[in-house]
Amino acid sequence: MDAAMIQAIFSNIYAVVAVILLFGVSVFVHEFGHFIAARMCGLVVDVFSIGFGPALWKRKRGNLELKIGIIPFGGYVALPQLDPSGMDTVQGGEGEAVRTLPAVAVWKKIVVSLAGAAGNIVFAFILAWIVYLGGRPQMPGFEGPLVGLVETNTVAYAGGLRAGDMIQSVNGHSVKTWSDFVQVCSFSEKVALRVRHADGVEGEMALTTSTNANAFEIRMLEGVEQGSVCKVKLVLSGSMAEKAGVQSGDIIKSFNGEIVAGRGHMISLVQGRAGMETPLVVERTGVRTELTVTPKMDPDRKLVLIGIEFDSMAATPLEQVKQDASSVFRILKALVTPNEAGNAAKSIGGPVAIFGMFWLYAKASFLLVLGFARYINVNLAILNLLPIPVLDGGHIVFALWQGIFRRPMNEKVIRVLVNGFAVTLITLIVFLSFRDLKVWRIFAKVMAKESAPAAAPAVPGGAAPQPGDAP
């Protein structure tokens, strides 16, 4: 067994462990939020479970049963005063008779129902802070919808899209990040773009999206990659950049007469200029300065370098969470918009796709997988508050009914609604899982190439990670 194979094995083991831990913690914090709120409000708690169905493991702590269910996609806290036997069958209960328990104030029911989502949001902010302190936005897409590369043999290039263009709107919808742009494109077969070109002139174009550009068959503009602001974080001592007069804080605008539209673009431009004096234009405190630099081959890294490190311009924790929430709400809006609903539904991944993306991002970068976990937690918080009987939002609706009509909703009606929607939800999960089995083919390819994902289904920042190193 050679070193490369051993490294690949350990890489996959790490990825699997990261997936299990992060997804498990995401479920745990949601249910722990319900648990803590229920305890503080004086509610009876029968079961704290990670997973559904028959127990793989369980322990009794007084009147509380701790449990790990055989179906790992979710979890629950059994609160008989909030849900009197409504989910007994789905949760793997033994069908014991409904007990007579003290009534619970409406506000307490609402607080307990909201607490699960609050747990996910708190965890999302913790992850966002880790990413922020890590020095770069782990999910690309927070720097604005700047085009970094347009392949010349594509529909987008023929339509007039160029590197350096800043996308302003898609189909009349304003886009503020690359994630917004990718997401709106995924909903439509044809897109009308309004862009601001690098020379400041604005233009419009109609382009056709394709599912051929990525293994997940999500609609996108083929051959178009994200750009980024090339801001210099550090100039290495004794480097060619230092000799040329490049300073920390400079924004690289052009190299060898070509507009620089991204860090990856800059790296590629440098590679062909080893040993050659090359004009370099930087923007410094709002003023453009012309310099001359001579890139140098680094024999150890086998790269042509000028000796700088880029400032990743990491998004703040609040910006990260706001972008995640915006992405989720945009998907929900698309699902109820007639001309977007079909493609939006195709872009939604089930448990297989979610676990798969966790695995792919874990293999690509520690910060990437933390970012995806942050998105999943924001997603869980929002979706669980939808007014659907089987979710937390359904319990809030039941509590509001009680507050408005001064009596609780009939328990038989609640039971029928909850179990009916539970069966519907489980059916949907099974359907999505079978549909997502194609993802395993993608995983096999990634394992063979040991590469990062090219796109992610229906998540913010679905574009490939931008290089963190500088030329």
In summary, what is this structure?
This protein has 471 residues and is an alpha+beta fold. The chain contains 13 helices and 16 strands. It has 2 domains: 11-138 and 316-471, no CATH class; 231-311, PDZ domain (Pdz3 Domain).
List the main descriptive attributes of the protein structure presented here.
single chain, 471 residues, alpha+beta, Pdz3 Domain, 2 domains, four-stranded antiparallel sheet, 13 helices, 43% helix, 20% strand
Count the helices. How many? 13
Helix content: 40-55%
Strand content: 15-25%
Biggest sheet features = 4 strands, antiparallel
Q: From N to C, what is the helix and strand string?
A: HEEHEHEEHEEEEHEEHEEEEEHHHHHHH
Strand order of the largest sheet: 5-4-6-7
Q: Roughly what is the average pLDDT, rounded to an integer?
A: 80
Span between N and C termini? 35 Å
Low-confidence stretches: 88-92, 137-141, 449-470
Number of strands: 16
Structural class: alpha+beta
Q: How does the overall form come out from the CA principal axes?
A: elongated
Q: Please state the CA-atom Rg, rounded to the nearest Å.
A: 26 Å
Work out the count of structural domains. Answer: 2
